[in-house]
Write a structure and sequence with these properties.
The protein is mostly helical. The chain has helices spanning 18-39, 45-50, 57-68, 72-84, 90-93, 97-113, 119-127, 129-162, 166-214, 217-231, 241-245, 251-254, 259-281, 283-290, 295-311, 313-326, 328-334, 353-361, 366-402, 408-433, 439-463, 469-489, 506-531, 567-584.
C-alpha cells in the first residue's frame, strides 16, 4: 500500500503528552497570529510579493537561512549523517558558504539595483523572452516539486505525532501554511521564518547534546561509528569508518572510489556548480534579500545568514550520526536490514533518523519543543517555495504572457489564487517525494536539473557582454536536458527507470548531472553567442559587470558604518571561519 493510503489512528511513532501538545498549539497560535498581523501591511502587490522592500538586514538574513532550513537541512541532512557520516558537512562548508558570500558581494547589487521583482525578470532584461520563459517555467515547476518534499515530511511529523492517516496530515499541514501566506504574503513568511529559526535551534540543540551524552561525547560517537563499520556485513555497503569520520576526500558522499575524483566532484560538482547554481540564482533565497530596505542590507542578507549556516551541521548532521549507532531501527537499516514502521508506515528509512532519536532520548516537554521545531522547519521551507512560486507565476508568467496591463489589485488577487493552487499541487507532488528513502538524493537531482544550467547562463551573461539572447535560451534549455539525460544514465537517480549505463549512484549522480549541465550550457552559449548578434553595450548597464559603474553597485552610506556592519569585512570573517572548519574536520 502506498505511503499516502493511510494508517490506523492508533499507530504513533512518538509518545507525546499534554505538555507537548500545549507547546505545539502555542507555536501554531503565534504562526497564525503573525499572518493576521502581516495582513494589515498588505496594500499592494509589492507589499504582498516583496514586503514593500522595507525590512532590515538582520530580519532578512535570518529569514534567508530559515527559508533553507526546511526538509533539506533537517531530515535530509540528518539522513545523510546517519547513512554517510561527517562528509555531509560539505553541503554547508563547501556547498553553501562560498556561494552565499559571492551572492552578497557580487550578485545582489545587480538584483537589487535593477529593481527587478524576481530572478526570472532579471533574466528577461538580460536575454529577452526565450530565456525568461524557460527560466520562469522551470523555476515554477521546481518549487512545486520541492514544496511537495517539505509538505510530505511535515505530514510525516503530524502522522508520527497523532497517528493520523498521512493524507489527512498532508491536508492539515497544507492548510496551516496556506492560511498565513495567503493572509500576509512574503512579510508573513519572513517574520514566521525568523520565529522558526529560533524554534528550530531550541529544538535541535538539546537533541544533539543529550544524544552525544548518551554515546559518551564526540569521542564516544567516533568509537561507536568505527565499531559499527568494522562489524557490518559487506552486503550492507557501510562506508569505512575513516570515510564516515573525516570530511575529506569524501568518497562516502560523492560515490567516487578515487579520492582525487571525489575531491573534484565535491569541489566542482557540489561546491561550484550545484552550490552557486542554488544560492546565487534561486529566487526562493534571493527574494528574502530583495525584501531588504537598502542595497547595503540586501548585500549583507546572505552574509549574515552565512554565520548560523556554518554551524547548523552540529545540530543536524551529528544527531543523524548518533541515531545510526543509538537507535536500533536505524542501526538495523544501516546494517542491511528492513525494519518495519517508520513515519511512512512502509518501513524505516534514513529520513526517520531524527524522529526516532527524539523518541529515544527526549523527555516530554523537550519532545514538544522538538516537534514544534521540526514543524517550524518544514513550514518555513514550504512557505518559502510557495511565496517564491506565487511571485514568479503572477509577475513572470501571468502578467507578462497572459494578462498584461491590469490594475495592481488584480495581480494581488492572482498571487493569492496562485498560492492556493500551488498548495493543492504540492499535495500531489508530496506523493512523488514519499517514494524516496533519502530526500537529499531527490532534491540534489532536482537542483542539478534546474539550478546548475541557470547558474551557467547567469554567470556567463553577467561577466561576458558578448553573450546573446539566443545563446541564453539555447544554453539554458540544452543544459537542463543534458542534466536529465545524464541522470537517466546513472544507476539510481530515477529508481527503477534509471538505465545504469554510468556506474555511479546516490548523490554522486546528482553532482555528475549538474556538472554536465554546466559544461554543456557554457559550451553551447559561447558557440551560439559567436554566431549571433549581441545587445549594444548601452543596454547592458546594471546587467553586465563591465558595463555597470561601481557607484551603482554599492551603498555610499555604508562606508560610514563600523567595520562589522560593512559587507566586505563581514564576508571576509565568514570566509576565514569556514576555512578553519574545513581544516578542523
Amino acid at each position: 500500500m502506498h505511503a499516502l493510503a493511510g494508517l490506523p489512528t492508533a499507530d504513533t511513532l512518538i509518545d507525546a503528552n499534554a505538555v507537548d501538545y500545549f507547546i505545539i498549539a502555542l507555536y501554531f497560535v503565534f504562526v497564525l497570529g503573525i499572518g493576521v498581523m502581516a495582513r494589515r501591511a498588505v496594500s499592494d502587490s509589492i507589499d504582498f510579493f516583496l514586503s514593500g522592500r522595507s525590512l532590515p538586514a538582520w530580519v532578512t538574513g535570518l529569514a534567508f537561512i530559515s527559508a533553507n532550513l526546511g526538509a533539506v537541512e533537517i531530515m535530509g541532512m540528518s539522513a545523510n549523517g546517519a547513512e554517510l557520516g561527517i562528509s555531509t558537512v560539505h553541503y554547508f562548508w563547501v556547498g553553501a558558504i562560498p556561494a552565499m558570500l559571492f551572492l552578497g558581494v557580487v550578485m545582489m547589487p545587480f538584483y537589487y539595483g535593477s529593481k527587478v521583482r524576481s530572478v526570472p525578470e532579471f533574466m528577461f532584461r538580460r536575454f529577452g523572452t526565450g530565456a525568461h520563459l524557460v527560466n520562469a517555467l522551470s523555476f515554477a515547476l521546481a518549487q512545486l516539486l520541492i514544496a511537495g518534499v517539505n509538505l510530505y515530511l511535515l505530514g510525516s511529523i503530524v502522522h508520527a505525532l497523532l497517528g493520523w492517516p498521512l493524507w489527512v496530515a498532508l491536508l492539515v499541514a497544507a492548510a496551516i501554511v496556506l492560511s498565513y501566506i495567503t493572509l500576509g504574503g512574503l512579510s508573513a513568511a519572513i517574520y514566521n521564518e525568523v520565529l522558526q529559526f529560533f524554534v528550530i535551534v531550541a529544538a535541535l540543540l538539546p537533541l544533539t547534546l543529550i544524544g552525544l551524552h548518551r554515546v559518551g561525547g564526540y569521542q564516544g560517537l567516533k568509537d561507536k561509528v568505527a565499531e559499527f563499520a568494522a562489524s557490518a556485513p559487506a552486503s550492507a555497503a557501510v562506508p569505512p569508518a575513516g570515510q564516515q569520520l573525516e570530511s575529506w576526500p569524501g568518497q562516502a558522499l560523492s560515490g567516487f572510489d578515487s579520492p582525487v575524483w571525489s575531491v573534484v566532484g565535491i569541489v566542482f560538482g557540489l561546491g561550484f556548480v550545484l552550490s552557486f547554481g542554488y544560492w546565487t540564482t534561486n529566487f526562493v533565497e534571493v527574494q528574502r534579500a530583495m525584501a531588504s530596505n537598502s542595497i547595503s542590507a540586501a548585500r549583507k542578507t546572505p552574509i549574515i545568514g552565512a554565520f548560523p549556516k556554518m554551524f547548523v551541521p552540529f545540530i543536524v548532521i551529528l544527531p543523524g550520526m548518533v541515531a545510526a549507532v543509538l537507535v536500533k531501527e536505524i542501526a538495523e537499516l544501516k546494517g542491511g536490514g528492513s525494519p518495519p514502521g517508520g513515519a511512512s508506515g512502509e518501513g524505516v528509512k534514513y529520513n526517520d533518523a531524527l524522529l526516532l532519536l527524539m523518541r529515544d532520548v527526549l523527555p516530554n516537554g523537550l519532545l514538544g519543543v522538538a516537534i514544534a521545531g521540526l514543524l517550524a522547519a518544514f513550514m518555513a521551507g514550504m512557505a518559502a517555495n510557495i511565496s517564491a512560486f506565487n511571485t514568479v507565476f503572477s509577475y513572470d508568467l501571468w502578467q507578462r504572457y497572459i494578462r498584461k496591463n491590469h490594475a495592481d489589485d488584480y495581480y494581488l488577487r492572482i498571487g493569492r489564487l496562485a498560492t492556493v493552487a500551488a498548495t493543492v499541487i504540492a499535495i500531489g507532488t508530496a506523493v512523488v517525494a514519499s517514494s524516496f528513502s533519502n530526500v537529499m538524493d531527490y532534491l540534489q537531482t532536482l537542483f542539478g536539473f534546474f539550478n546548475a544550467p541557470l547558474f551557467a547562463t547567469f554567470i556567463l551573461g553577467m561577466f561576458w557582454k558578448r553573450m546573446t539572447a539566443t545563446a541564453g535560451w539555447v544554453g539554458l534549455s540544452a543544459g537542463t536536458l543534458s542534466a536529465v539525460l545524464v541522470a537517466f544514465l546513472t544507476e539510481d537517480a530515477f529508481g527503477d527507470v534509471s538505465l545504469g549505463v554510468i556506474p555511479i549512484g546516490g548523490q554522486g549522480a546528482a553532482f555528475l548531472a549538474a556538472s554536465a549541465a554546466f559544461v554543456v550550457d557554457i559550451a553551447l552559449s559561447i558557440v551560439v553567442s559567436l554566431l549571433t548578434q549581441p545587445k549594444p553595450a548601452s543596454e547592458l548597464r546594471g546587467l553586465v559587470y563591465s558595463e555597470t559603474p561601481k557607484e551603482d553597485l554599492v551603498d555610499p552610506l555604508e562606508s560610514r558604518l563600523p567595520w562589522y556592519q560593512r559587507t566586505i569585512p563581514l564576508a571576509g570573517v565568514a570566509l576565514v571561519l569556514v576555512i578553519i572548519l574545513n581544516l578542523a574536520f
